[in-house]
Amino acid sequence: MRASRDPRKQSAGGEPRRNRWPRGLRDRAARRIVLGLLSRTRGGELEIVEGETRLRFGERVPRRPLRASVEVRSARFYRRLLGGSVGLCESYMDGLWECDDLVALTRIAALNVRALDTLRRALAPVLIPVQRWGRWLARNTPGRSRRRIAAHYDLGNELFSLFLDPTMMYSCALFDSPEVTLEEASLAKLELVCAKLELGPDDHLLEIGTGWGGLAVYAARRRGCRVTTTTISREQYDYARERVREAGLEDRVTVLLEDYRELSGRYDKLVSIEMIEAVGWQYFPTFFRRCSELVVKDGAMLLQAIVIDDRAYHVEKAGRSFINTYIFPGGCLPSLEIISRSVARVTDFREVHREDITAHYATTLERWRERFMGAGERLSELGYDERFRRLWELYLSYCEAGFRERRIQDVQLLLAKPGYRLKPSSAAEPDEDLDLMAA
Asked: Is 399 considered catalytic here?
């Protein structure tokens, strides 16, 4: 694709000004490499601004007119960018570059990363064994899991309250129309979860991954079931217990501070909403085995999971990214293939329903990002500095772009034990989607 100078940037004699920036040898070499890679840009237009020089790459596509302008504020930007997503993140936190549309920028990146996936798969036989060994040494043991969960979820309940809605649901909401509020969309998701599990007063529901108690309170109040919910975040635990007390549901809801591997007992139904991403790739079979052991022979489990393409899973799982370094330490997105394989090998569950809700997550993240960006003054008052705010702005934009371009997906899976029988009104084939795909 094209890379062109801005015709407005001319010297007095009418010739383009010579770009003498950057000057350092390493910076010049890094710049040459990065610009060479950008020359292959597809699916959108990217502008690089270096002082008075403007370089353009790619072109807008009519069906998705993506365009982003990046202002380079330091020659070190190019060297840092060669460090992949971690370098991209760190350089943005450090203010080495600015962008007029981070979502568009990361959408363009998502559209072009597939070529990099091909190269990474070719190098996988060499790189993956080394990466896997390093990640195995840093695997999510119970103690390490608690510390890593605390690194994200114990950042402060008020932080999350600034961009989440009153339900405090930190997972994909469901938007039936663009006019729906974030809270209404979260409540719609909670109702759908309860409906798929056919929860009633006779059920005892186990929830792995409490969050801030939104689902536990909703299910107990609306469906009359008993709920046992567990988290390993101290701040979430304290918040959820207080929320249950304020709702007058202490006789229906029990909040635990236990790792899923430490749970005991048997439950009629089990739910886990976007918690599996924190399990770690080494423990996916362990997670599903424990879930199966905790559910009665005629029970069911609903899993809501963010998943990555099967073809990218093996090169991503042991790699280092800014998400599993700065946002969710030790995290790993599963693929549908690895979920299905784990379920088949270590459980007696069978999949009876699957729904893709990816389109809704892009809208959810857009709403979160808008609320987060609008809370800058309050974030500053609470002690979250500019570097932190830039990190989270990039995180929310990056994830939104991933869902919009289907780099990642969000799915709900209903897994049933051999004795479980769907009621006729809720029976569905695994490939049958409910009419809930409005973006």
From this structure: yes
